[in-house]
Amino acid sequence: MSTRLRRVLGVMLVSCLGLAALHGNADAAPQVPPSQDPFYTPPSPLPAGKPGDIIRSRPSVFTVDPFGKTPFGGVKSWQVLYRSESVQGAPIAVSGTVLVPTKAWTGTGKRPLVSYTVGTRGLGDACAPSYTLTQGLDYEELFIADALSKGWAVAVTDMEGLGTPGQHTYEVGGSQGKAVLNMARAAQRLPEADLANAPTGIWGYSQGGTSAGWAAQLATTYAPELQLKGVVAGGVPADLRAVADNLDGSLFIALMFMAAVGYDTAYPELNLDRYLNDRGRALLAKAKDVCLLSFDGVATLFDTAFKKISDYTTTNPLQTPEWRARLDANKLGATAPSVPVFQPHATFDQIIPLKQADELHKSWCAKGANVTWKTYLLAEHVLGALQSEPDAVAFLGDRFAGKPTQGNCSAT
């Protein structure tokens, strides 16, 4: 581990332990799972409005203390329910969190906002970041705390179907990208947060890398009013067909099954059930409410480890024209982001293949994008997230400071 990474992680830990002793929001929302919390159930029909409009909001708690759940000091927190759109353009409600440091911003211009896009959580509502961030059980909470320590505000979307009713559209990039951009809009439209017209960055890894990459591609046409300064898209599953080929028969094949559920939800005509055998239907029924980092989630990973698609299907749906067309429609690389992108990836990533991520950055570069591509030699998927974190924060910090960057497309 580099000296710089040790220093950053040490600062994050010390900050969390020290600030946790301070008081947060006194009138915070009840800390019950979304399935028991009417806040997450949107009105039907949705009220008139536009993407990013807030349907409802309330104070909440952000904590890194899983035992006493002591509020993280120096930060105001709100849960929000806001308007977004499905991949096919239907209006939907999505939940999320807005976090703002209480200390006055002393940098140039307005306080920056980071729309943070989380990695894989699972399919169950209890996996929603707006809930796990209130429990001190979110595995990315220290990355979020590091951003807050820079004085930046942070907005975290739950994405479609996590927390709110309906199944999570896991790894459907078009939906995730919209949720990220509309989360930034919602944060800027929350009066108490005082973030209107804030310079904005996007940061995500793994599933969050997909979300960040899609937000980067959509931003110019979908949310042109956002003052987007830069995007970090790390460990990106850019081409799900390539990712599926890598996962089939591996320890992590459960992630592919989750994506199948996500696509079946986003595109009901795909009709996943007709491809499943009895074993596949049993797995589907078991996994629909599972959170990855839970007892049931770990058990599902072990139960499915090293299995093949053919163990759960009568016909492989990924070999059909219908499924291939939908997967290809959510493949990244067709449009060049209009802002600088930092794209880190672990050389020995055992979950998200390096080759398809390399092809994404080359595709973006060929279209004229400003991309900084960096690989981490002594890293697999998790170490890739840890080792790239300091570089991600530095990249966003430079963009918020107005420093130019040329990327390294010419060197690849």
UniProtKB/TrEMBL annotation:
Keywords of this protein's UniProt record, alphabetized? Answer: Signal
**Chain positions covered by the region annotation Disordered:** 28-52
Ranges of Pro residues compositional bias?
A: 31-48
Highest taxon listed in the record's lineage? Bacteria
Q: Among its keywords, does the record have Transmembrane? A: no
What SUPFAM superfamilies does the record tag this protein with? Answer: alpha/beta-Hydrolases
The signal peptide, as residue positions, is 1-28
InterPro entries for this protein: AB_hydrolase_fold, Lipase_secreted
Pfam annotation, one family? LIP
Record protein name field: Lipase family protein
